[in-house]
Amino acid sequence: MELVRIGCACLVGLVFAVSAVSKLRDFEGFAGSVPALVPAWPGRARLLAIATTALEALVPPLLIAPVTAPAGFGVAAVLLTAFTAAIAASVRRGRRTACRCFGPSSVPLGPRHLVRNGVLLTCAVLGALSPGGLPPAGGVAVAAAAGLAGAVLIVSLDDIVELFARNP
After folding, report:
1. Which of 80, 103, 109, 153 is 20 to 30 A from residue 161's alpha carbon, by CA?
2. Residue range(s) defining the domain that contains residue 149
């Protein structure tokens, strides 16, 4: 089970690192998109954008050390639950809000983003429930590579879907 924790830490950590960096690279664009996702907080959109980006940036370093990894998985799980609720509400309202999870995009939020967040939330919970410890180096390398490959697929999900949608 230690390998599950390591794989989940690599996957969740890389996804949150990419998300935080992409938001910092276009912070004004991200902050401008928040009111469309959370219309109940129009006056607090910038504060919510700052808090979201700061918490996302906090997740990867927390996941590095076994002693802080449960906190990192916990922060990730809370954020993913909030993101999923905001996306579900946006989809239910029929809004075509663009996904800005990994930087500027014209892809509207939809069911695939809910599935993506469900996969990430499952990984965060599995990682939090897995025991600490350090398995053999070979196992660590395989688990880390699997987690990082999964993260690349998740970050590139919209591009992959778009590629196959154009070429049936």
Report:
1. 80
2. 1-166
Q: Are 117 and 9 in contact (CB under 8 A)?
A: no
**Coil/strand/helix, residue 130:** coil
Q: What is the dihedral of CA 63, 65, 70, 72, to 10 degrees?
A: -30
Domain count, the chain: 1
Euclidean distance between CA atoms 30 and 99, whole angstroms? 10
**Torsion sign across C-alpha atoms 35, 40, 44, 48:** negative
Q: What is the pTM of this model?
A: 0.88
Distances from the Cα of 7 to the Cα of 40, 79, 117, 123, 140, angstroms = 37, 19, 17, 9, 8
pLDDT tens-digit series, residues 71-122 = 999 999 999 999 999 999 988 988 778 878 887 787 888 899 999 999 999 9
Quickly state the pLDDT bin for 167 (edges 50, 70, 90): low
Q: Are 97 and 108 in contact (CB under 8 A)?
A: yes
User: Which two three-digit tokens encode residue 79?
Assistant: 């954020």
> Which two structure tokens, joined as six digits, stand for 141?
């390398």
